[in-house]
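Human:
Focus on the backbone:
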Amino acid sequence: MKVHRAVAGAWILVACADLAGCSSADGRLPPAVTAEVARDFNEGDVLRTAANYTDDAQILAPQHPAIQGKAAIVGFFKANIDKYLGFGNETTWSLVRGDVAIEQGVYSVRNVRVGANVEAGKYIRIWKRTSNGTWKLYRDMYSSDSEAPAAVSVAPGEAPS
């Protein structure tokens, strides 16, 4: 009984140290990986943007049911990619453990027609390394820094308020 408690206690300490960041990570996600979604979005390529996600991925958008699976993700990007919108993201923190990675960052959406940002926010992403070594998004959750969801307009002459 005492041996089981000691083993259980050791496992709890290891888990706590791991969660607290006391153990060494496998590294950080390469910047080229974390920038691919923005690059593909900004190039207007719906299929290539969606290809950055696993087949069972989910996008967890604010005030929206989970967007689940590749077909739904393609539909999401078809509805949201616009040549007058630019998307940018900056990784502020990432952690790789084996074939799973977590990324935290900030994003902005810019109306390139009027030259102004129309939304800014933060995100958390969970990535999975595939069998061929590439990284794909498994979960993508974001929230705007605005109190209300931004009404993004690309009409000429309409600057965000």
Summary: The longest helix spans residues 2-19. Residues 18 and 76 are 36 Å apart (CA to CA). The chain has one domain: 26-144.
